[in-house]
Task: structure prediction
Amino acid sequence: MSAGRALRLALLSFVLLVVALQAWSTRSRLRAWDHTLWVAVYPIAGDASPATASHLAALGPGELTPIAEFLAHSGARYALPLDRPVRLELNAPLTALPPEPPADRSLLGVVWWSLKLRWWAGAQERNSAGPPGELRLFIVYHDPALSPRVPHSLALPEAQLGVVHAFADPRQAATNAVVIAHELLHTLGATDKYDPLTTLPRHPDGYADPDLMPLHPQERAELMGGRIPRSAQRAEIPSSLDEVVVGPLTAREIGWATP
Result:
């Protein structure tokens, strides 16, 4: 290994160590749930469609109310000592799109992309007129007439930020809310509870009612399981947060319940 490459790897290792220590400290503070967490939400047009622009112009705080109410109700199930666990604050739309995940999924490629995403998110936050959030969600809206399927949403829990891809259609607001809530809990350390190859929820942790007899069909989804298991081979996307619960393992991961 050349001296220059060794130096670059050493610098990268040092940066990652600093980032990891900062992330651990921040996550521990947030998961204490001793105050309402401030979530800054930034909408972004994912295309040049007039329908998308119109949708962003019509967005209001009520778009996020179902998510805050869902988390308040869910936290109460675990005796969370907060009537309002999170406050979601809608900011003015942004014009810059986040960096796309790398085609190169090597460790170095993913690390470099995550650092670029952190830098991009920080720049958007500094340029925004709204107050900074303890958690940040960037919601990229797409015209369903142009994009019947949207890119996969993602989150960086170590950076307390998420990038959500949603549909620019008021008729999809309820299903968008499910995806936003899912990514929001990712920023707090919740893990996916579905098979990445089949997207089927994993039993038992990805099921809302894992002890139901017979097990199928289920009537609700576990938030991080993502879908309602109707059979062992078929699952459906919930139509709204009314069909979703936060399961015990997810509650432990985000600090709502003790291990």
